[in-house]
Amino acid sequence: MPSPYLALFAAPGSRGFAAAGFVGRMPLSMMGIGVVTMISQLTGRYGLAGALSATIALSAALLGPQVSRLVDRYGQRRVLRPATLLALAAAGVLLFAAHYEWPDWVLFLCAAGVGFVPSLGAMVRARWAAIYQGTPHLHTAYSFESVVDEVCFIIGPIISIGLSTTWFPEAGPLLAGCFLVLGVFWLTAQRATEPVPHPREQHTGGSALRSAGLQVLVATFVATGAIFGAVDVVTVAFAEEQGHKAAASVVLAVYAAGSCVAGLVFGLLRFAGAPARRWLLGVCAMAVSMIPLLLVGNLVFLAVALFVAGLSIAPTMITTMALVELHVPRAHLTEGMTWVSTGLAVGVALGSSVAGWVIDAAGADAGYGVPVVSGAVAVVVGFLGYRRLSRPAPQRGGTLEQHSEREERHVA
After folding, report:
1. Residue 48: is its pLDDT beyond 60?
2. Is residue 204 situated within a structural domain?
3. In this structure, what DSSP letter does residue 44 have?
4. Which site from 49, 54, 63, 308 is most exposed, i.e. has the minimal number of CB atoms within 10 Å?
């Protein structure tokens, strides 16, 4: 690993919370696609599979920011452990109900309960911010965490889909639950690096979502999340139509590998000027990269197209987290980062659900129209909200350009 990444771990305790965060984020890539694979294996209904995955994502979108807001106020250990136990209980009943063919409404109710799962990525990034806030190391830390996200998306679907298709249908989501409880309890056992909770009087400004810049980021990432949700569901269906359903995990891993490579390189770079410009360029690149999916005819070409598409993901996500840190007060940082994940979760819910309906009605080839349309929407919203991202962030002092200049002087 290049020296800037190694330098991150000079901070005491950083290796431990980074490792725990990796384990705890595995369910991020395993649960949704695992439920899709499980339900399609048990019932053959992609519409139901996509709707259940969407329910999990929407529930997490509603509950996740509230969990993170409590974390900012009371601390990670006091909030994450009970929230995780609630999510695990709901997931356990979901697997039981699916296996014994209980009514659909029971499945949806359990899927909604899975939404209590905490955002481990936001928790780990908050720990990095507490250590390196105001230094160039924070850019490298965010880049590292984006790479960790993508590594999870490389190996998570392979494990989840592979287990559910070769062992038994519930195996993928079951292992995801095991990773979640291990990661959360490991992370929260590390008290020395836990960010200090902010007292009630520092939360008088209301939700972090009152920030105009954060509103733009969340709205854009609803559309971006729809890209991810649709690609996951359609790729599984496309691979099944090609007669190689298990290969979907490998194709989705290639998608994440492209993002992983780009994230590693991006973390080594230092940029001058406003980060909002880089963010908008990344959103446009993500949208354009979806167009070739309409033309693929086999799994090999699909894998190549998705690898290229993945190259724009991590840099855009890294810049997004940097913008959150600039636009959101420190007392609301974990909540602000979770709102971005919420936007993605809502988008994943919409994308997977719509894609499932399109597949049932017209086949997998037509399903790739969903991420193309989603990318176009993301670009439109990004352009409309660009000026908000470029405006001064009062709680930080000065414009975003001035902040970048101060950071450049620090590097020098």
Report:
1. yes
2. no
3. -
4. 308
